[in-house]
């Protein structure tokens, strides 16, 4: 069903996958899985490692899961799942079992949760986390426009340990 592809063979646009198609950030904490929809992040090379970077606001329940885990997954779906991704981005796992209600199937690879229905799954080992700070913005308009409530994202950089794509 899935085949492993090397990061060097990953021929998908991160601008489309992340910015237009969206992704799910998923992690596990104390035997429970939570996920959130995201459209900000990227893929690249840092510290001589293939990495993904994601950002999560402090009020997001998934942040607790990513903070508590050594790893996380990023999953990407075809257009038929856009409504589900929208739902998963607008509901909190604090309030309901949104994964169960989405009818997505959690499966694992190396103890990292991801979704059977995904087209692409990227598995990451956390390397770095840092909260954005207002004084770090060179272009202050970005801070004012994106953080009127001072709820600055935490940046996470994860080493890509595996990529699976549907055959």
Detailed description of the structure:
This protein is α+β, with helices and mostly antiparallel strands. The protein is 22% helix and 42% strand. It has 5 helices and 10 strands; from the N terminus they run βαββββαβααβββαβ. Strands 1, 2, 3, 4, 5, 6, 9 and 10 form an 8-stranded antiparallel β-sheet that branches. Strands 7-8 form a two-stranded antiparallel sheet. Strand 2 and strand 3 form a beta hairpin. The chain is globular, with a radius of gyration of 15 Å. The mean pLDDT is 97.
List keywords for this structure.
eight-stranded antiparallel sheet; 167 residues; 42% strand
Q: Low-confidence spans: pLDDT under 50, at least 5 residues? A: none
Total E-strand runs: 10
Dominant shape: globular
Work out the helicity level: 10-25%
Number of helical runs? 5
C-alpha-based Rg, rounded: 15 Å
Q: Find the structural class using helix and strand composition.
A: alpha+beta
Q: Strand content of the residues, in percent?
A: 35-45%
The secondary-structure element order is EHEEEEHEHHEEEHE
Give the end-to-end Cα distance, rounded to a whole number of Å. 6 Å
Short description:
By secondary structure, this protein is of the alpha+beta class.
């Amino acid at each position: 069903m899935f085949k492993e592809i090397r990061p060097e063979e990953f021929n998908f646009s991160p601008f489309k996958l992340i910015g237009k198609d969206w992704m799910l950030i998923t992690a596990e904490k104390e035997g429970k899985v939570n996920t959130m929809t995201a459209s900000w992040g990227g893929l690249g090379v840092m510290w001589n490692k293939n990495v993904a970077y994601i950002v999560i606001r402090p009020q997001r329940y998934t942040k607790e899961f990513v903070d508590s885990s050594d790893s996380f997954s990023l999953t990407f779906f075809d257009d038929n799942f856009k409504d589900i991704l929208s739902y998963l981005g607008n509901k909190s796992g604090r309030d309901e079992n949104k994964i169960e209600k989405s009818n997505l199937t959690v499966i694992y690879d190396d103890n990292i949760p991801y979704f059977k229905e995904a087209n692409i799954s990227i598995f990451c080992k956390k390397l770095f986390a840092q909260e954005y700070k207002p004084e770090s913005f060179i272009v202050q308009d970005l801070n004012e426009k994106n953080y009127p409530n001072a709820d600055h994202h935490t940046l996470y950089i994860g080493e890509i340990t595996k990529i699976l794509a549907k055959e």
